[in-house]
Design goal:
CATH superfamily of the largest domain: Ribonuclease Z/Hydroxyacylglutathione hydrolase-like
Oligomer: single chain
Order of helices and strands: EEEEHEHEEEEEEHEHHHEE
CATH topology of the largest domain: Metallo-beta-lactamase, Chain A
Shape: elongated
CATH class of the largest domain: Alpha Beta
Strand order of the largest sheet: 1-2-3-4-5
Helix content: 25-40%
CATH architecture of the largest domain: 4-Layer Sandwich
Low-confidence stretches: 109-116
Mean pLDDT: 94
Number of domains: 2
Number of strands: 14
Distance between the termini: 38 Å
Length: about 290
């Protein structure tokens, strides 16, 4: 993983297009890249805040400074990992704005987590179903349900400009981690195909740079996942194997510190293949079905 050169624009307001500004939170890491990017939508009157980020005093102060005297119509969360939604509550308390967006989710995974854990405190005032919209004076955001990275993940389409706020579902710097049991590879691929069929102009992810060729990227991501699936099947054709043996073969060029995350994605692929009756598990070993 290669980070861009410092200094990063932490706490600064970046104008991306007439209706969209961005503020970077100070939470860089192997799963957040340079940090969570919070988006402010609207130029005239009430704003929407997308993915308010971690409950961090420095980031909250930067958001409030960026908002200034403008009212906030909605605080929108794409999903409830702790690098995305915890700042919703203090921001709502400071602005009086409702929290609107993804559904709440509390789920423990088996074994140590390798991505950000879920925000147990998230309590939305309104959940947006797929295709539902909310509007301000000069903007309309429509929910696009994209389960897979998490079961409650949702993107937001800005109808006035063709931009899509993609949270962690599609990122320009890395593929998304899919961690069972809540993360679901079949759902993730279906959600990628759903976005592939859309005509969005640009993606604004929660981590990393904007994506200026969205359909090209989603096509490549689908191809990458299908290639990983074929790789697993080839390895299992040679001999039954445990995930711990598959990961070193599949991720030879990847930093070993990321192998636990890679193992979770391999597990997600195997569960999908098992549900399609292509493989079966026998204890820790996975075997291809003849």
């Amino acid at each position: 993983m290669q980070f861009p050169p410092r200094p990063w624009p932490v706490g600064r307001v970046e104008q991306l297009e007439p209706l969209v500004r961005r503020v970077l939170a100070p939470n860089p890491g192997p799963f957040t890249y340079t940090g969570t990017e919070t988006y402010l939508v609207g130029a005239a009157g009430a704003l929407a805040v997308i993915d308010p980020g971690p409950d961090d005093a420095e980031h909250l102060a930067a958001l409030l400074a960026a908002i200034g005297s403008a009212p906030v119509a909605a605080i929108c969360c794409t999903h409830t990992h702790r690098d995305h939604s915890p700042a919703a509550a203090p921001l709502a308390a400071a602005t009086g704005a409702p929290v609107i967006g993804c559904a709440p989710l509390v789920l423990e995974t088996s074994g140590p987590r390798v991505d950000a854990p879920f925000d147990r405190s998230y309590a939305p005032d309104r959940v947006l179903a797929d295709g539902e919209s909310l509007s301000g004076p000069d903007w309309t955001l429509t929910a696009v349900a994209t389960p897979g990275h998490t079961s409650n993940h949702v993107c937001f389409a800005l109808e006035q400009s063709g931009a899509l706020f993609t949270g962690d579902h599609v990122m320009g710097w890395s593929t998304s981690v899919v961690v069972p049991p809540d993360g679901d590879m079949a759902a993730y691929l279906a959600s990628l195909e759903k976005l592939q069929a859309r005509a969005d102009r640009v993606y604004y992810p929660a981590h990393g740079p904007q994506v200026d060729k969205p359909q090209q990227l989603t096509r490549g991501m689908i191809g990458h996942r299908r290639q990983r699936e074929r790789q697993i099947l080839r390895l299992l054709e040679a001999a039954p194997a445990a995930i711990a043996a598959l990961v070193p073969e599949m991720y030879r060029g990847v930093d070993r510190a990321l192998w636990p995350a890679a193992g979770q994605s391999v597990l997600a692929h195997l569960i999908d293949l098992e549900q399609r009756a292509m493989v079966r598990r026998e204890g820790e070993l996975w075997t291809i079905n003849a």
